[in-house]
């Protein structure tokens, strides 16, 4: 027999609450991700692209202006040939080399090397003179100390020996005479070659 319809109880399938919570979270996460993606594509990406283009344009403009400024400054730069510097300077006369024709790269490099060597030698001399001055001050201070104490300081002789040793080393390291000799020889050779051209020996 068929059961009585009034006795049939309608029931719904039981569902785990945890599964429902996870489903809602995934659904909400999908919605939030979709909204964020739309915002990124529609608003953020165009703004970033615009900023990148502006920075690139600014860099190009700055580089062009900098290049123009460098070119302008180079055009205004005044250079001095090494030949205008004097050699064999003394109290009354100064020997100078007058340029009569264009020099080769090797001659220009030679002149630049001589000038740099003379400059470095002058700097070395200044440092050595400063060192000698300081040593003299030290010796003077020691002498004053001995005079006040009324007795001779035993280490003073050792200090004087060290000072003499340093002076000897300075004299050994001094190459100014050799550099001056080479400079004089180069100047004489250049002057002799110029004389050949002036006198018509070389045409």
TrEMBL record:
Gene Ontology terms: biological process: protein import into peroxisome matrix, docking
Transmembrane segments: 27-48
GO cellular component: peroxisomal importomer complex; peroxisomal membrane
Keywords associated with the record: Membrane, Transmembrane, Transmembrane helix
GO molecular function, one term: protein transmembrane transporter activity
Annotated protein name in UniProt: Uncharacterized protein
